[in-house]
Amino acid sequence: MNYRENLISLLEQVKEKGLQNQVAPHILEQNELTEAEIINFRILVPLIGTFNAGKSTLLNTFLQRDVLPTDFLPETAIAAELRYGTHEHIVGFKKNGEMESFELESIKSITSKDFSHIHVYLRSDALQELNNIVLVDMPGIDSALQEHNNAILSYIRNGVYYLVLTESEYGLKDSVLDFLKELNVYEMDCSILISKSDQKLPSDLESIIKLAAQTAENLAGYTIDVGHVSAKTGNIDSFHHTLASLNQPELLVKHLEPKALEAVDRVYRDLQIRYKHHTLDIAEIEEKIKRFERSLIHLENEVEAESRNIAQTFGYQTVTEIQDDVRLALMDNLETLTRSVKGGAEPFKKTLNQILRPVLVHSIESRVSAVLSNSYEKINRKNIEIEELLELSSFEQSEGHYLEKFVDTISNPAFRAMIGGVAILTAIVAPWLEVLLFFAPDIIKLFMNQEKRIREHLEANVIPEILEKLQPEIIRSLEEVNQQFMQQMQSDLAQRQTDVKASLEQAKQDKWEAKENDDQFLNNLKETIEELEVIRNQIVEKRNILVHMG
Fold this sequence. Notes:
Strand 3 (89-93) and strand 4 form a beta hairpin. The chain starts with a helix and ends with a helix. It is globular, with a radius of gyration of 27 Å. Helix 2 packs antiparallel against helix 9 and helix 9 (248-277) runs antiparallel to helix 17. With 550 residues, it is of the alpha/beta class. It has 17 helices and nine strands. 37% of the residues are buried.
């Protein structure tokens, strides 16, 4: 039994114990959704490179059949996730969240103009053997900027490992080097594959690989694996090696263990609250419910106050910090911008995009996440205080258990899940870049041809104008983020409160049903609680064993 199957088996035991002990249906439904997430989770490995680097051809060679079009235009290319399925078809995902199914033969008609990405389901032994990995055929680095930005921003946090392809004829082109720098900003791992290696003599290929490895290491500060492939000769050993070397156990544990533990804790909390309150009479439990509901009014006021605090911080401090980050990045790259201007609007747009995309991503994740994390911690601490005051904490060592959730809150799985729900990167960075790129031709149209005058104009006029165009977009986007974050926060708190109230209501029902067998009922509850503790420990033990083996 593999790790995923083991987690599902343990959660099925939790479900059975929940049903036997009349745990609220909505809690069990939440766990069913968690099980589905665990079953469906896959490690996304995007393949990226310049247009015509051979990404689709490599994947077709891997699949041993021609499925992916190799004649897409850069402006129509779309991110395509390759997934195993017995029924071959395509699912297109629109930008508004809607889905549409297609026959496999329709793949050429599905473009980034209408869809954000597609899932291509294939009856392929090669894909089935990958098991936990989903390969993603990405638009080329030189694709239309808007579509490429959307694809990049969608996968830089969902993808876990990038494969960067570059042609043997050109080695590490400037656009590839720029993307490697960007991955370094995102702190994402990658490997490099030199494609079309059959076009070079073995000695020349060896020199190309050595140079690429040294250049990449100088850029990243650590060793990056460099291999070579040739779809023409069918030599894709380096591709197979890279996939085989991924630390799947560690990645699976990182994404799946928190979900499994939370599913156990939902049922555990319910039984603990009912166990603690079984010694009270029904009137006392009802009074506890009323006190809990009154306390929630104060929590709602706390949420509203935090929303105002976020708005105040976003309104001046965060806007200024983001603008400063942008200004500094543009000033540091004045020479590069100056050279790009000579080529006209398109080179300038691409250069501006390459400079600002990683800067905006890093700035948003550090500045915005820090503010939201602070509010997340405050509100959750207030909620915990209410539960502890009313003796509703479900863990005996409640302080230690809950406080550990707020150590390094920004990397906390629950907080990261909430940020993912708000979709900060795609909701903010992509629209900002779109606005800037739209105005880019107007920004540079009055440039002189002398390089000195171009640099002066960039510093004195263009950078201030970029910041001016960006400011209202920052303000508008941060207002939307605050609103979405608070809605998500309120939804999560409401779910938590619904769980507690359901447990208290069931505690009342327990009193009616266990009148003459109180001792036996309490013993059964206690035994089940202890069994859940064992299951929780088993999940942690499986993690330790798996990571050690991995």
